[in-house]
């Protein structure tokens, strides 16, 4: 049986401060098995990056808190972990690369030293020089990059350096948050191909966060779609992108194709994302949905079965809209976690 690396079970998280909470994540689930590639899709503000930082323990405890659900990393419940507890998991269990490497690399420290420092944090006795050269070769950078400063490298090279740092302690899971957003099209393709090659070569799992559905289609085994802090659809990539169960997912796909409607306009999703300063108590997509029914404004839908291994959070998936949901309440969360198990 394939081992579970990461399990997020109905997570709810708020940002605090200035007298008002922001419900950044309200009901998000995620399951990552050893060696598989998972995609997380959604518009800006859907909670994708917050979820990524939550599973890395990178959210500041002074301005954020988990108010529901749990995060389990390799069988360890990390929901209540503090900074020192997370330090023991980061690197060896989970590692992360960000969309703007220049913001995360020290501009006055040579690249080789920054890679070596990451190695030393987890393994003080390692041969840092040899391991640094090994990592540069792994991400297809020449050895001379060791003596370079970040500003002397191209955007693609800096992202490869970030990958080398992330891989320094041989993580079982790599989280990549929009890793190609700031790169040109050619370099994007090279970095994505490298991510896929590294995942297969090293046997690690990958969580790829992107608003680009084409990228997720190319690399991912399964996809989770997020909207307003909720997981609203999940399934195998071919299911979610080939036969989407949720109106929001259908809207994302239509918009990504850049096709024009009868009026000559490009397809878009009308309306605005709901405010996250109040907890959503109905369907979060209802105000923007062309298929909305009265029940959508009255009760929140649950993740219900669209087809085997394919779930959607939509009242259209219930046998009788407004009636009993397709799955008993006590099985919905486990179904969401176990899709693709």
Textual characterization of the structure:
This protein has 341 residues and is α/β, with parallel strands linked by helices. It folds into two domains: 1-93 and 171-341, 3-Layer(aba) Sandwich (Rossmann fold); 107-166, no CATH class. It is 30% helix and 23% strand. It has ten helices and twelve strands. It has helices at 48-56, 83-89, 111-122, 128-138, 155-167, 185-202, 213-219, 237-242, 247-256, 329-338, and strands at 4-15, 22-33, 37-41, 64-73, 76-77, 94-97, 173-177, 205-209, 222-227, 230-236, 303-307, 310-313. It has an eight-stranded mixed sheet with strand order 6-7-8-3-9-10-12-11, with helices on both faces. α3 (111-122) packs parallel to α5 and α4 packs across α5 (155-167). The longest helix is centred in the middle third of the chain and has 18 residues, at 185-202. It is globular, with a radius of gyration of 21 Å. The chain starts with a strand and ends with a helix. Mean pLDDT is 89; it is low at 320-341. Belongs to the ABC transporter superfamily. This is ABC transporter ATP-binding protein. GO terms for molecular function: ATP binding; ATP hydrolysis activity. Keywords: ATP-binding, Cell inner membrane, Cell membrane, Membrane, Nucleotide-binding, Translocase, Transport. Residues 6-253 form the ABC transporter domain.
